[in-house]
Specification:
There is one protein chain. The longest helix is centred in the first third of the chain and has 31 residues, at 2-32. 17% of the residues lie in helices and 20% in strands. The strands form 4 sheets. Strands 9, 10, 11, 12, 13, 14, 15 and 16 form an 8-stranded mixed β-sheet that branches. The protein has a 5-stranded antiparallel β-sheet with strand order 4-3-5-8-17, covered by helices on one side. Strands 1-2 form a two-stranded antiparallel ribbon. The radius of gyration is 27 Å and the shape is elongated. It folds into 2 domains: 2-139, no CATH class; 143-400, no CATH class. It has helices at 2-32, 41-52, 227-234, 258-269, 377-382, and strands at 34-35, 38-39, 75-81, 86-89, 102-109, 117-118, 129-130, 132-139, 155-158, 185-186, 201-204, 214-216, 249-251, 308-315, 329-344, 360-365, 406-407. It has 5 helices and 17 strands. With 409 residues, it is α+β, with helices and mostly antiparallel strands.
């Protein structure tokens, strides 16, 4: 009995120490497996090997995990299914590399890569060692709490408008097959070279009509969603701080709110400023210049901003139910990346013959993968949601990954 007790204690100690090692290694690998939005298997494997080696287990002074880059080692990359709680390995070269969101790390005390747990009194019964195995899976979820400053527009997208609600049909859900959704399909007023027509762009409409697909919020569940407060967010007078959190409830409102959209347009296109020529008869205050935050990225490069990547929150379905009616608290589901191409709003101090004041925002939704499953380079380059700091998970799968991994297995 004494032999059994002593050796059982050693086995439990070894198992616990080995588990601590792979837990830490999996978290480190998940933290390091994306580099500027691109999957970096080498970086993830290196982190797993390094961190595992900082741990010991009974007779092994530094735990070794095998990383050979070919899917045959102890570090494996793959997809974590939150509904079934299962990990599916995705090998290098597979078409669906864009689905990698988890890493599994295994380690063994077996006298091959690491010393087994030695038997003590059990040796009198012919037992010289005990083999032990442990594994852990760490998951990079989807953005639920962005960093400070990552979300800086008070615009909300209705999940029903882009098939992004929890009960959406998987076959047609948001970015299914790498195809971005189009809501209120429209054309650009000033199309650039090669821009498609036939309603290929999404047009956000804030008015409570049948075509409404967007709303306004000040990211508070009690404060009034009024024009002044919305403008303060747009103009960085009152930044969105703390950042919005998926799963929380926030007040929404509808309506065109032309002054707010005008301010957003000025930040996109730039505004030269305006000085009141007759302050004695006109009480209007001077308006300062606003530098353009959008870029002229499409030929023929005419000097007008035509691209602005932004992160927008997605809220529970408003279609035919609340339509963002003032005073209703609604749930934030997650965040999407969009490429804003045009904004139209009335602006008497910035005349533009192509701006008819239609109060519309025209954009593309950016998907994490291309048709076929390969990672979308546009997403990797322009939609890294961690400019303001670490990004926690908890949001719905809209392609924007968190940067803080969690252990799931």
């Amino acid at each position: 009995m004494a032999a059994l007790a002593i050796d059982t204690g050693l086995m439990y100690a070894g198992r616990g120490q080995l588990q601590n090692s792979v837990d830490a290694a999996a978290l480190a690998a998940a933290q390091s497996m994306f580099n500027a939005g691109a999957l970096d298997r080498t970086g993830g494997e290196a982190a797993a090997v390094t961190v595992a080696g900082l741990h010991r287990a009974v007779d092994e002074p530094d735990i070794n995990v095998v990383a050979n880059g070919g899917g045959l080692g102890d570090v494996k990359f793959g997809d974590w299914n939150e509904e079934s709680n299962t990990f599916t390995e995705i090998l290098p070269g597979a078409l669906n590399q864009g689905d990698v969101d988890a890493v599994s790390v295994a380690a063994f005390l077996d006298d091959i890569n690491n010393n087994a747990v030695p038997a003590t009194l059990s040796q009198v019964r012919g037992r010289t060692k005990f083999d032990i195995a442990a594994s852990a899976t760490a998951y990079i979820g989807y953005a639920g709490i962005p960093g400070p400053g990552d979300v800086d527009l008070p615009i909300v997208v209705d999940c029903c408008a882009i098939n992004a609600c929890p009960d959406s049909d998987p076959s047609t859900a948001y970015c299914s097959g790498g195809v971005p959704p189009v809501t209120n399909g429209c054309d650009l007023v000033r199309p650039q070279t090669g821009d498609p027509t036939g309603g290929s762009f999404s047009c956000l409409d804030f008015a409570p009509t049948g075509s409404q697909n967007a709303c306004w919020t000040v990211f508070d569940n009690g404060a009034s969603v009024n024009t002044a407060a919305l403008r303060d967010i747009v103009n960085d007078v009152t930044p969105v701080d703390p950042p919005p959190v998926a799963g929380e409830l926030y007040n929404l409102d509808n309506g065109s709110k032309a002054p707010v959209l005008r301010d957003i347009m000025r930040h996109f296109e730039g505004f030269p400023g305006w000085t009141n020529p007759d302050p004695l008869n006109d009480p209007s205050p001077d308006e300062p210049p606003v530098p353009a935050e959008g870029t002229d990225s499409y030929a023929p490069y005419d000097g007008m901003a035509d691209q602005w990547y932004k992160f927008l929150p997605v809220f529970e379905c408003q279609n035919g139910i609340d339509q963002c009616a003032s005073g209703n608290n609604q749930e934030l589901l997650g965040f999407v990346c969009v490429e804003i191409r045009e904004i139209e709003a009335p602006d008497g101090h910035n005349p533009d013959p192509l701006n008819d004041g239609d109060k519309k925002l025209r954009l593309n939704f950016v998907c994490p993968t291309l048709p076929g499953g390969a990672p979308n380079p546009v997403m990797m380059t322009n939609c890294n949601l961690n400019g303001g700091g670490p990004v926690a998970g908890g949001g719905s799968d809209f392609g924007l990954k968190a940067t803080i991994p969690v252990l799931v297995q």
